[in-house]
Amino acid sequence: MVIYLVEEHSIFAPLLENYIFAQPDLIFVVSALSEIECFVMPFRKNNQLLIDKFCDWFKQAESVLLGKEVFRQAAHFRADFPSLKTPDALHLATAIHHNCDEFWTNDNRLDKINPNPVKNILTT
Q1: Which domain holds residue 23?
Q2: 118-119 and 62-63 as β-strands: parallel, antiparallel, unpaired?
Q3: What's this model's pTM, rounded to 2 decimal places?
Q4: Could you give the residue ranges of the DSSP H alpha helices within the chain?
Q5: Calpha distance 94→91 (Å, rounded)
Q6: For 52-111, what is each residue's pLDDT tens digit?
């Protein structure tokens, strides 16, 4: 979701912005894993403007740590759902461990793992 927002995806960014605007008290919670995923392409392309945009965005988000409990929960998810990729399992486990109200994704498979807090806001 962060990539869609920061890179101003023509379809998804407006949907996300509308959802964000409707919730003025919204707090974004991210981990270092989110940063890894977001910075790969800007680093690869040496796109300093985009790197700066991501840096600015991450400054306003709440960053949480991935402790052993998160990794263990992610391993349980992967054991129960073999097609689940490690980053997705870690993101979901992080949201659950840190009691996030919602976990935004565009992957409808994740709500089969844990429907609460998974929410696909891009289908509206």
Answers
A1: 2-123
A2: unpaired
A3: 0.88
A4: 2-6, 12-21, 32-44, 48-59, 68-80, 86-97
A5: 5
A6: 999 999 999 999 999 999 999 999 999 999 999 999 999 999 999 999 999 888 888 887
